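Hi R.,

Here's the chain you asked about this morning:
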Amino acid sequence: MDDSTAFLAAAERALTSQGIIVVGVAQDGAQAMAGVDSLRPDVVLVDVYLGAESGFALAERIEASVQARRWAVQVILISSHDKDEMMDLLQDSPAVAFVDKAELSAQTIQGALEDGRT
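And the predicted structure, written out as tokens:
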């Protein structure tokens, strides 16, 4: 989930080429929520800064939605901004981890899922 179509396309190509199955992409919160509800992904990558909507708020909406339906999804927040700038918000978030966009790869996603709040 990212509001940049160029980033979405590049990330989808890169992750797919590394063996990640990308079941959907979204440019805004409404698309993301519809995709989560219909596709039931295991992991959702959410950009911290989405323009009109905060990625932190979207992560909370995703968490509430999947809990109501009694299934699980792991949210990983992504950003090109420094993790230290948002450390307090990350700790209060239902997201399991944070990954820098510059380091986004199958390996960093797997590591984030294994290690938790990286």
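The radius of gyration is 13 Å.

Let me know if you need anything else.
M.
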